[in-house]
Design brief:
By secondary structure, this protein is α+β, with helices and mostly antiparallel strands. The protein has two helices and ten strands, in the order αββββββββββα. The protein has one domain: Immunoglobulins (Immunoglobulin-like). Strands 1, 3, 5, 7 and 8 form a five-stranded antiparallel beta sheet that branches. A five-stranded mixed beta sheet has the order 2-10-9-4-6, with no helix packed on it. The termini are far apart.
Length: about 180
């Protein structure tokens, strides 16, 4: 009887792990919040994890809603990177680097972007295959196209030097009034 209770507790403890099976997209910073100034390029590190029985290939990334060209331009790095993650708890981690390009993507903040907070979902699209499609000795069958998403936040802030100018201008304006 004791063994049965232990077995039941063990299975119950593993159920939450089974609920997380599948393709996992994570960003670094983990909260997907980027802070940048007008004219700056910012971006997300990417962690692409697969714990299914299939091969997953990164097919594309988009922002929903896209903040628009008045705020800046998002560049999807899947067009430059062929990322394939095999089955069975494997993962790829790419650190954001706009020069390579590496990571989930970059966002070039427009020089005239208004300061503020822009939020939405980053949609991550991937294809599933039953075998490794890069292996010429194996026929890999396309299974489906899937997507997952994660919330993101982009904070457009003024340059730090601008913060120091505001009190200076306020002081000058106060002196002129006197």
């Amino acid at each position: 009887m004791k063994r049965l209770n232990i077995l039941i507790l063990l299975i119950a403890g593993l159920l939450p792990l089974a609920a997380h099976a599948g393709i996992v997209l994570q960003f670094d910073p983990a909260n997907a919040v980027l802070v940048g100034q007008p004219g700056q390029t910012v971006g997300w590190d990417l962690i692409f994890q697969n714990d299914t029985a299939d091969y997953a290939i990164w097919a594309g990334t988009s922002l929903d809603p896209d903040p628009g060209p008045g705020v800046g331009i998002f560049t999807d790095f899947s067009q430059f990177n062929f990322l394939i993650v095999g089955p069975g708890q494997t993962s790829i981690h790419q650190v954001f680097d706009p020069a390579i390009p590496a990571g989930a993507g970059s966002f070039l903040i427009s020089p005239s972007a208004p300061y503020g907070v822009y939020t939405g979902q980053m949609v991550f699209v991937y294809d599933l295959y039953d075998a490794n499609p890069t292996n010429p000795d194996v026929t890999a069958n396309f299974l489906s196209e899937q997507s997952t998403s994660q919330a993101f936040e982009l904070d457009v802030v003024p340059e730090p030097a601008t913060f120091w100018l505001i009190p200076s201008f306020a002081l000058l304006a106060w002196r002129r009034r006197r």
